[in-house]
């Protein structure tokens, strides 16, 4: 009998030891209560920070996805309250930018125009949070933030367009089901590649789960990658980036006096027209462009970009973004930012072909957002992890685009399909005039090519901000951003 008990306990001990890693890894979410004041009204809310486990139908764990959810406490019936699933892009970005920049109940402190302050960095209550209108769930895709594949060898199974859509869709389905939110109006808010993801999810959630979305918030949108990929013989990006080059040159006072004196929006209307008519026709003619016409186009490009006629001529009328960011303020020893071309930085080599780093990322937002989130998640959210929180990581590369091999990814058609099947879905697209990562004119072009049914075109709205990719780092734009959101979610 004693022998039997010893053997039985030994078996139990061995079983517990074998299960221990899985048991320990199933970290319970941290649930905390807070308050934030929005428009003079105090809003109580619950924050939940933790993991959602993704499993296959056999119950095998595939990944743990980290999320932070904010739910308003003074709403009795949460089943009908709007809920917004939100994420950033990259691919390889955590959700920290939207979380701690514009949408969440806390925001990083930057200067009035969005410049980095001296470290250590601080965060404050965000009086412009969206939490007064909608509950918020910030999702970190696998390999970003604290999210990880169950087995690191399998992480590549999440690093691709289709793979990412499947995983994010499963997360949204699980959260919606487990928290009884099927009756809630549901929204997706994505930034940058996150808008690519949102467009893909709008159709995937319909077809896979029968989940129809009420609206998409597309922040600094990119749906058609042919609009932003510079390559020889491909003319489209040169045309579509031009208005942002003009806005950037206008901001840095590099334009001729008559153009500099014009209101930015008025000037950009003229540049849009030139880009889609004279400039497009000139590029299409290639080497057959007559010399006199070439000279005229060079003159106009020089006026609209702030670059010298000689430089425009040397580029063969085709100004690539990497060169523009270095050339515009080269004489001052500056390069301008890609994410936000208002930002500048000094560099070692003023004769370089391209900038050494993006002034609007490395010297503006990376440090403040990384520093404050790592403090906030432990201090306020009471979530503990020794994993590095991956802000913007290269560990997702190479990203798998096998679904569009030998093509440019274009999810505008995916969104069109979703809207035609769900004609009540609305789309709000917000654009920064100084965004050289996802230029506003490229987005306008993409939407114009969607071939939406005429009666659905009114479902798409645009707003513009005198800031860059993360328009909310600029305080006047953050104020407008919140007003525009409120207008959108209260149709």
What this model shows, in words?
The chain is 38% helix and 18% strand. It has 491 residues and is of the alpha/beta class. It folds into 2 domains: 27-226 and 366-489, Rossmann fold (3-Layer(aba) Sandwich), CATH 3.40.50; 231-319, no CATH class. Strands 1, 2, 3, 4, 7, 8, 9, 10, 13 and 14 form a 10-stranded mixed β-sheet that branches. Residues 1-8 and 12-24 have low confidence and may be disordered.
- CATH class category label of the largest domain: Alpha Beta
End-to-end distance: 74 Å
Number of helices: 14
CATH superfamily membership of the largest domain, which one?
Answer: Alpha/Beta hydrolase fold, catalytic domain
Please indicate the percent range of residues in DSSP E strands (runs of 2 or more): 15-25%
The stretches of 5 or more residues where confidence is low (pLDDT under 50) are 1-8, 12-24
The figure for the number of domains is 2
What name does the CATH topology of the largest domain carry?
Answer: Rossmann fold
Mean pLDDT: 93
Please state the CA-atom Rg, rounded to the nearest Å. 25 Å
- Known CATH architecture of the largest domain: 3-Layer(aba) Sandwich
What overall form do the CA principal axes indicate?
A: globular
Report the order of strands and helices: HEEEEHEEEEHEHEHHHHHHEEHHEHEH
**Largest sheet report:** 10 strands, mixed
Proportion of residues in helical segments: 25-40%
Protein structure class: alpha/beta
Compute the number of strand runs: 14
Give me the secondary-structure topology.
Elements: H1 2-25, E1 30-38, E2 41-55, E3 61-72, E4 83-87, H2 96-103, E5 106-108, E6 123-125, E7 135-139, E8 148-149, H3 161-178, E9 186-192, H4 193-209, E10 215-221, H5 236-251, H6 257-260, H7 264-285, H8 291-305, H9 309-314, H10 321-327, E11 334-336, E12 344-346, H11 366-379, H12 412-421, E13 426-432, H13 440-448, E14 460-465, H14 475-489
Parallel strand pairs: 4-7, 4-9, 9-10, 10-13, 13-14
Antiparallel strand pairs: 1-2, 2-3, 3-7, 3-8, 5-6, 11-12
Helix pairs in contact: 2-11, 3-4, 4-12, 5-7, 5-13, 7-8
């Amino acid at each position: 009998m004693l022998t039997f008990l010893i053997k039985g306990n030994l078996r139990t001990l061995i079983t517990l030891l074998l299960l221990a890693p899985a048991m320990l890894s199933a970290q319970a979410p941290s649930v905390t209560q807070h308050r934030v004041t929005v428009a003079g009204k105090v809003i109580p809310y619950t924050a939940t920070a933790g993991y959602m486990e993704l499993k296959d139908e056999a119950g095998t764990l595939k990944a743990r996805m980290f999320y932070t959810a904010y739910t308003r406490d003074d709403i009795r019936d949460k089943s009908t309250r709007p809920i917004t699933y939100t994420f950033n892009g990259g691919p390889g970005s955590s959700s920290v930018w939207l979380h701690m920049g514009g949408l969440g109940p806390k925001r990083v402190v930057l200067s009035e125009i969005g410049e980095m302050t001296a470290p250590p960095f601080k965060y404050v209550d965000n009086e412009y949070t969206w939490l007064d209108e909608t509950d918020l769930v910030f999702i970190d895709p696998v390999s970003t933030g604290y999210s990880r594949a169950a087995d690191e060898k399998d992480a590549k199974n999440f690093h691709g367009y289709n793979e990412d859509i499947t995983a994010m869709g499963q997360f949204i389905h699980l959260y919606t089901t487990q928290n009884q939110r099927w009756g809630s109006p549901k929204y997706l808010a994505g930034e940058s590649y996150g808008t690519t993801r949102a467009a893909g999810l709008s159709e995937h959630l319909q077809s896979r789960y029968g989940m129809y979305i009420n609206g998409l918030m597309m922040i600094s949108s990119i749906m058609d990658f042919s609009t932003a990929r510079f390559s020889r013989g491909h003319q489209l990006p040169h045309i579509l980036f031009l208005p942002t080059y003009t806005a950037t040159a206008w901001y840095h006072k590099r334009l001729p006096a008559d153009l500099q004196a014009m209101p930015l929006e008025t000037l950009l209307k003229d540049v849009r027209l030139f880009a889609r008519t004279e400039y497009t026709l000139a590029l299409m003619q290639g080497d057959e462009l007559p010399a006199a016409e070439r000279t005229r186009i060079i003159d106009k490009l020089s006026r609209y970009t702030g670059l010298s006629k000689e430089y425009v001529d040397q580029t063969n009328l085709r100004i690539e973004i990497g060169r523009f960011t270095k050339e515009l303020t080269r004489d001052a020893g500056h390069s301008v930012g890609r994410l936000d071309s208002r930002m500048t930085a000094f560099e070692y080599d003023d004769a370089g072909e391209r900038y050494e780093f993006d002034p609007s990322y490395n010297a503006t937002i990376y440090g403040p957002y990384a520093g404050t989130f790592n403090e906030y998640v432990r201090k306020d959210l009471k979530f503990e992890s020794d994993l590095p929180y991956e802000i913007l990581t290269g560990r997702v590369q190479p990203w798998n685009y096998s679904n569009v091999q030998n093509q440019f990814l274009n999810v505008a058609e995916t969104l069109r399909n979703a809207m035609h099947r769900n004609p009540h879905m609305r789309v709000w697209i917000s654009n920064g005039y100084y965004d050289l990562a996802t230029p506003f004119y490229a987005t306008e072009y993409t939407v114009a090519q969607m071939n939406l049914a005429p009666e659905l075109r009114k479902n798409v709205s645009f707003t513009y901000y005198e800031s860059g990719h993360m328009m909310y780092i600029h305080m006047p734009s953050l104020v407008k951003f919140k007003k525009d959101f409120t207008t959108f979610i209260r149709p």
